[in-house]
């Protein structure tokens, strides 16, 4: 009876049982052990244990009396937990009993549990760091999750809310309704603690079944959002306004006649000419060395004209690559060339419509372009590159150059016809050395202007320094003077600019080692000769011009250039 019960346990037990002799040869194995280790039954008996469980190393008989081992092994894609016990089979015979548990599923379940725990932690962190208040309910509308932000806002510990019907813990909620209707409610207004909040209520589904709902509340009062929207709208408007102003400023003349500083007769005369020239739309040609103020005069002409409120567009003919100049000036149509913008591009002439276009460094305009410009000036119409349509233009042209255009014409580098077309009103701006009486007023003007810009206040100039500035030949003209003063203001400590604050090269030139270019020397000589000729002919220009072998117009031109 006792044995038959034992045999029943042996046969039906889900645990695998293996009995080995002391040589670790299997004596018997129950059906569960057979299933775990081999596919067919009754195979194990008589086989060495190592064939099936090679890693199991129970202690050898004799020394194993008390030794029980437990190990987890992988066999045939299964995970087995193996315990070994020393047993006494007969008085003389000892052996080992192995108990095998299949823990494969257990291992998988543990892995799933660990994963779930990990995800729970991630989710809790995400929920607790969210800016919005988040509440989750189950399919019956009972609170299961409540995040930190919501807890802080409501001021009740979440432990007190979990497990309660949501309508009892959250004011004006509809989550318990959403779990029934299954319809999401987005961007709804929910009044909580006297504030109108924006909320989303979304049902959670598993297949077709609703297993809960999540509610999200944005902790911003709606009125605050209205204010923010209004603020954004105003800022956008402001931005557009300033963008427009900047655009207009970039396209507008910044200086007027008042900005032209100088009390010499030649400057006063030029200012008068500017005012006269400004009234018409005739083309003006500004001539003079670099830095004499040609651009300043161009601004002043535009600003004194009746169309001062219209665009003033500057084009530096020397700075634009030859192949781009035409499209820059006249614009282009879509597809005119590779790289042409979609929709084409409006040219500078069209941009200046109704206003003025300032063609700086005109002497550097390539010949090929000169022909096209001449045609536009004559016809007062243009065609965009790649276009067929003729566009009428109503733009005042102001050109400037520091080149001797007559010489360029003689050299075949500048078209004579274009020269005449441009030279309708000619304003020769004299070099600074030809109007030294302007130097003190210009110095005062720049000390004032730069003092404000640099934030160092109005500094004075010592008589020594002034002497040096008056004696310099100023090849870089007013631009050079401005730079010298800016440099001095940057290094001066006290209230007065001294000789030592001026660049060495200025001091050297005053000490007698004057460096004068050939052009300057010739100009000086030419001026002297004109004056002499006028003196000897008692101011008779025709006679003076004849004596010097010049035409009347070119004599006048030179007189004007030298401020005679
Ligand atoms: N009469 C003046 N009064 C005040 N500032 C002047 C005067 N003439 C020139 N300037 C200033 O000198 C600097 C150079 O002038 P501008 O750029 O007009 O010279 P430019 O003859 O056009 O030179 P470039 O030929 O090199 O282009 C500018 O900062 C300008 O404001």
Automatic annotation (TrEMBL):
One of its GO terms (biological process) is regulation of DNA-templated transcription. The keyword Coiled coil applies. Residues 225-252 form a coiled coil. Gene3D superfamilies: 1.10.8.60, Homeodomain-like, P-loop containing nucleotide triphosphate hydrolases, PAS domain. SMART domains: AAA, PAS. Residues 260-490 form the Sigma-54 factor interaction domain. Keywords: ATP-binding, Coiled coil, DNA-binding, Nucleotide-binding, Transcription, Transcription regulation. It holds the Pfam family Sigma54_activat. GO terms for molecular function: ATP binding; sequence-specific DNA binding. InterPro entries: AAA+_ATPase, AAA_lid_NorR, Homeodomain-like_sf, HTH_Fis, P-loop_NTPase, PAS, PAS-like_dom_sf, Sigma_54_int. This is PAS domain S-box. It comes from Desulfosporosinus acidiphilus (strain DSM 22704 / JCM 16185 / SJ4). The lineage of its organism: Bacteria, Bacillati, Bacillota, Clostridia, Eubacteriales.
């Amino acid at each position: 009876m006792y044995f038959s019960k034992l045999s029943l346990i042996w046969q039906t037990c889900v645990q695998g049982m293996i009995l080995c002799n002391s040589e670790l040869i299997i004596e018997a194995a129950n059906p569960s052990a057979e299933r775990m280790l081999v596919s067919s039954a009754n195979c194990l008996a008589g086989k060495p244990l190592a064939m099936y469980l090679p890693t199991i190393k129970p202690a050898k008989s004799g020394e194993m009396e008390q030794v029980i081992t437990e190990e987890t092994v992988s066999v045939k894609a299964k995970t087995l937990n193996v315990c070994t016990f020393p047993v006494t089979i007969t008085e003389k015979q000892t052996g080992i009993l192995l108990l095998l548990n299949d823990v494969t599923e257990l291992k998988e379940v543990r892995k799933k549990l660990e994963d779930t725990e990990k995800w729970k932690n991630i989710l809790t962190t995400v929920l607790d760091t969210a800016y919005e208040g988040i509440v989750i309910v189950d399919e019956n509308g009972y609170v299961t999750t409540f995040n930190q932000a919501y807890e802080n806002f409501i001021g009740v510990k979440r432990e007190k809310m979990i497990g309660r019907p949501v309508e009892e813990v959250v004011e004006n909620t509809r989550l318990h309704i959403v779990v029934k209707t299954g319809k999401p409610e987005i961007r709804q207004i929910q009044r909580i603690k006297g504030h109108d909040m924006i909320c989303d209520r979304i049902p959670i589904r598993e297949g077709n079944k609703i297993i809960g709902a999540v509610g999200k509340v944005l902790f911003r009062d709606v009125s605050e959002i209205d204010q923010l929207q209004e603020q954004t709208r105003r800022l956008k408007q402001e931005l557009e306004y300033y963008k427009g102003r900047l655009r207009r400023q970039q396209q507008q003349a910044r200086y007027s006649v008042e900005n032209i500083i100088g009390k010499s007769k030649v400057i006063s005369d030029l200012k008068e000419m500017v005012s006269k020239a400004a009234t018409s739309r005739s083309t003006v040609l500004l001539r003079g060395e670099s830095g004499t103020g040609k651009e300043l005069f161009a601004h002043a002409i535009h600003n004194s004209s009746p169309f001062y409120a219209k665009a003033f567009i500057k084009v530096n003919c020397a700075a634009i690559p030859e192949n781009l100049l035409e499209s820059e000036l006249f614009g282009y149509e879509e597809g005119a060339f590779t790289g042409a913008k979609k929709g084409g591009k409006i040219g500078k002439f069209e941009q200046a419509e109704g206003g003025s276009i300032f063609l700086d460094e005109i002497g550097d305009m390539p010949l090929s372009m000169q022909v096209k410009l001449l045609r536009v000036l004559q016809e007062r119409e243009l065609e965009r590159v790649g276009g067929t349509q003729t566009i009428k233009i109503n733009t005042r042209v102001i050109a400037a150059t520091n080149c001797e255009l007559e010489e360029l014409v003689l050299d075949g580098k500048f078209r004579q016809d274009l020269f005449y077309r441009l030279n309708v009103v000619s304003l020769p701006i004299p070099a600074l050395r030809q109007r030294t009486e302007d130097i003190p007023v210009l110095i005062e003007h720049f000390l004032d202007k730069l003092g404000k810009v640099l934030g160092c206040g109005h500094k004075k100039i010592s008589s020594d320094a002034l002497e040096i500035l008056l004696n310099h030949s100023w090849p870089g003209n007013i631009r050079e003077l401005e730079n010298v003063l800016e440099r001095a203001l940057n290094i001066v400590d006290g209230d007065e600019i001294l000789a030592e604050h001026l660049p060495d090269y200025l001091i050297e030139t005053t000490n007698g080692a004057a460096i004068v270019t050939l052009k300057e020397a010739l100009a000086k000589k030419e001026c002297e000769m004109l004056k002499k000729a006028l003196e000897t002919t008692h101011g008779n220009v025709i006679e003076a011009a004849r004596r010097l072998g010049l035409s009347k117009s070119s004599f006048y031109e030179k007189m004007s250039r030298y401020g005679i």
